[in-house]
Amino acid sequence: MSDALRLEKYSFGMGDRFAQQAKAQLHACLQARAQGVDVTPVWNKSYREHTIVGSQPASVRAAAEVAIRELDWHQPFHIDADHIRLDIVDQFIDSSDFYTLDVADAIGQPADAQDVQAFVDRHPELIRRLEISGIAEPFETTRADIEQIASKYLKAVQEAGRIYRHVAAVKGAGSFIAEVSMDETDSPQTPPELLVILAAITDEQIPAQTIAPKFTGRFNKGVDYVGDVAQFEKEFNEDIAVIAYAVSRYALPANLKLSVHSGSDKFSIYEPIRKALARTGAGIHVKTAGTTWLEEIIGLAESGGEGLKLAQEIYAKALDDIDALCAPYATVIDIDRAKLPAKGEIQSWTSAQFVNALRHDPRNEQYNLHLRQLLHVGYKVAAKLGARYLNMLKACEPTVAKNVTENLYERHLKPLFIGD
Question: pTM, whole model, 2 decimals?
Fold first, then answer.
């Protein structure tokens, strides 16, 4: 990979649904750099988000380049075509240099029996007792075990290969970063499963620089991790160990690292992640989504006046349209509707009440994770407001930007990469 585009050790995926906060987000990376830690910004936006907002993929790069220029950023940055499939990837070819290959629909679909047998025949090294440094207990796999794992994941990896080769044929191999996303499945991958997936990625000749496995627990949008933190830590460390082993065994990029599709705000797992990175020297890519959009709403509410009124209006309309807004995100939200404030109650709230309910501060007794999740998926409401919403962002820009930067640095980058 000497001449190929190489993803840096620490990278952070930042969603910016309305392409207004790239500068405020980049300020957070500058703050991390001032503390001696380089975190590469990767602006990501999915096809679904573009469709809802009515934007085009090129707008993500355009917004990022303005921020890069105005803040005199001379470090790397990337533009992620997030959760890309073969039928939509062409729209992202010109503007993206990072591709998250989304093969969720193929996971669990039985691979061709001949392909499975050929895979197992190519990889006799997988059928034995394996001891991997960093994993406490050795594991032993039979041919039947590997066949079963390959049957579940091989078709998905083959699909990732098709997408990768399609992009490479247009852009040229080595001119972009490939991530393979395996997180949207029913259960966390075991070490043998992840090893099989990495072997299959090698066979497909995908120079994957990040892989996003499934972890235990719930990664709901915009709220903290829900699950057994100790179990997550065990899985995270085991995945690091498997990647290191696979890199030494197969033709995989030396900088291959884990990608955590967090949806943002997974505060309780940031310390275990930071400790694992410090202990192993591994890198990481963390991908967030709508946390910046929520900070926009917080900034509007905190500004008071018309900004607060618009935030209240957005919530009221989201409440009216809750079923349609939640449907696409049903697997990554848990909203107790009985704990959502009524529209009339919201209209009487002060700026402080609205901000305290929405800002992700579990220590604040007014914090309402159900309201936060609804607004997280409610960006379609703001999109329908069009110029009215964007103009209000501009009018409240100092307060909005302050919240975006502070949230990204203090609640995300600092606990992940710097610590107290």
Answer: 0.95
